[in-house]
Amino acid sequence: MRVLAMKLRIFTLLALAPLALARADDAVKLADKPPTAKKAAKPSKELAVIVNPKNPVKKITFSELRSYLKLRRQFWPNKKRCDLYLPPHKSDAYKLLLKDVYKTSHKKLQKYWVRKLFSGDIPSKPSYVSSFRSAGAQVLKNVGALSLVPANMVPKGARVLPIDGKKPGDKGYRLIRK
Fold first, then answer.
1. 3-state secondary structure of 176
2. Per-residue model confidence as pLDDT tens digits over 107-158
3. How far apart are CA 86 and CA 172, in angstroms?
4. Is residue 17 in a domain?
5. CATH code of residue 53
6. Per DSSP, what are the bridge partners of residue 83?
7. Into how many domains does the chain fold?
8. Pairing verdict, β 83-86 and 159-160
């Protein structure tokens, strides 16, 4: 019985040895090749305001944008709720929003949301996305979504809203880091 078990183990090892050697050769070949991973694009200085393509809004003024971002306006003209997805809170995009739109600090903005929430003015605080990619995914998935992403990271299919008639890259565009 022992001899048979031993023979079976040896046979199995001999049968699998060429496969193991082939895999080792492939691993060596792959290690010799330089990595082909794409470099992540550096975020542009301009922020694009993006919405779902089914959103009826085609353009927006800066004061309207501020109203939506502060949730003073909570519904789009089609009566869908505006779901706000703010950029990652440590990103340059978020710092630009704090400086130019909210005109406050992160800490004070958090207090603002809590005050609005507990006074019953808003049903929930806006969501902070973990990345610009996830912001784009939320906008494409949700008809009422609004978010801001670097202009060179706008997902395919999302609508960029011109602010006061100007898109990112136009002279006089308002949402740009200096």
1. strand
2. 999 999 999 999 999 999 999 999 999 999 999 999 999 999 999 999 999 9
3. 23
4. no
5. 3.40.190.10
6. 145
7. 1
8. unpaired
